[in-house]
Amino acid sequence: MNAYFASIEQVSNPALRGRPVAVCGRGRTIVVTCSYEARKFGVKTAMSLPEAKKLCPQIIPVYADHNKYIDTSIRIHNILLEFTDQVEVFSIDECFMDITCLCARGKDPSGENAKDVAMRIKQRLKEETGLTCSIGIGPNKVVAKVGAKLKKPDGLVEIKEEDIPAVFSKFSLSELQGVGVGDRTAQALRSIGINSARELGEAPVDLLVSRFGVNGRILKNIGLGRDESEVKRYVDNEQEKSFGHSHTLARDTYDLNVIHAYLRLLSEKVGARLREAIKTGRTVCLFIRYGDFDGTSRRHSLKNYIRTGREIYQTACRILETMLPLKKAVRLVGVGISNLMPDAKEGFLFPELEKERRLTDAVDSINKKFGEFTVKPSSNIIAENHGAAARRILPKHILESGGILGRYHWRKRSP
Questions:
Q1: Residue 307's CATH number
Q2: Domains held by the chain: number
Q3: Mean pLDDT (whole number) for 7-21
Q4: What's the whole-number average pLDDT of the chain?
Q5: Cα→Cα distances 177→155, 185, 245, Å
Q6: pLDDT tens, 125-157?
Q7: Which residues face 281 on adjacent strands?
Q8: pTM of the model
Q9: Is 162 a catalytic residue?
């Protein structure tokens, strides 16, 4: 899809159509994505909002609405599934489709070819969602994805089998990013003298394997425009392998009380999503970005599987301790959990653990009915009021969640 989040906002609000739009978060934030009108001024994804405003003073910030984007994504999937059940979701705004069955009668002059099918897909998406997309057609997923990147917005590019060597020989590594070659991989390839798809395809496989392990063979095939992986059926798409949340702080800070408060808030968010998916996890990741935009992440795997925000928070705190003392002020913190398995929801033998499980389920029920963080850990108040209330140091036993009932705060709401 083209400028997905921004395009949805423009379709939802006619006043935004044809105008430079930046989809972002609240407070001090970055540009999640921007409309093509904003891109003409040099505005890019991950740019800070003040930077974007310098390049494009008339840019209109719009707060991201993830529910709206997910709902639209599901509508798009339903349209694609009318063509074939071989629809593999690659991201919230990208899918692979195997349309071989629709083109099987291509030898018949009255039959459809791949471009005919692609045009029908584009028309349906435009009519039913108001959105444009770029479609790449190729004999495999790598080639199709590269084709989709070549012409934006509203593009349609077909790369046939016999044209792959000539087309790929012209590509730089940057044009392969997003199809298996990430930023760090591209940097590593350049460090050994590989700067283009042609050079990647011609590189000795032993050299690539010695540098990248088993991924070396995959990288060589990408350089050659080869991919043996099949497009999965929609019902076979893998479930989420991890859950995570991050937040940019209102101001860069060294204050560990503020950082711990945000870690608790984010851990509760991650825990809630984990339980909603009926999962437990064993590996916690902490990500820190500093004021100079340098970042670092560390992971810790536990012996037992966990499911609550408190457990995720305590593990994140242990990881944070390995990063202290802070040499630079912190701009952003993120918490994630992976190494997942289904939650059997078994009871606990020890009364205190069973009481906590029941309390957690009760809090989930209240928050689901009345809204996120209707009931929350008291330390979340520091994160919510970072700046005014951040100077108030809560007792250590509350900040570290040392009670069962005492660690939750009830926020009154109107009926």
A1: 3.30.1490.100
A2: 3
A3: 96
A4: 84
A5: 19, 9, 24
A6: 999 999 999 999 999 999 999 999 999 999 999
A7: 306, 340
A8: 0.65
A9: no
Distance CA 376, CA 380 (A): 7
Classify residue 89: in a domain, yes or no: no
Pull the structure tokens for residue 227. Answer: 């991919």
186 and 252 inside one domain? no
Helix axes 66-80, 114-129, angle to 10 degrees: 140
Point out the domain boundary residue: 64, 90, 111. 64
Dihedral sign from CA coordinates of 32, 33, 34, 39: positive
Asked if residue 215 and residue 273 are part of one domain, the reply reads no
Which is catalytic among the residues 9, 51, 88, 94? 94
Identity of the amino acid at 211: R
Least Cα distance to 400 among 316, 301, 281, 275 occurs for 316
- For residue 344, pLDDT beyond 50: yes
The residue among 64, 90, 109 that closes a domain is 64
Pairing of strands 135-137, 156-158: parallel
In a domain, 82, yes or no: no
Is 83 inside a domain boundary?
A: no
- State the residue range of the domain holding 45: 4-64
Same domain, 189 and 330: no
The more confident residue out of 156 and 246 is: 156
Q: Can you give the length of the chain in residues?
A: 415
In a domain, 70, yes or no: no
Pairing of β 295-306 and β 279-290: antiparallel
The SS3 of residue 193 is: coil
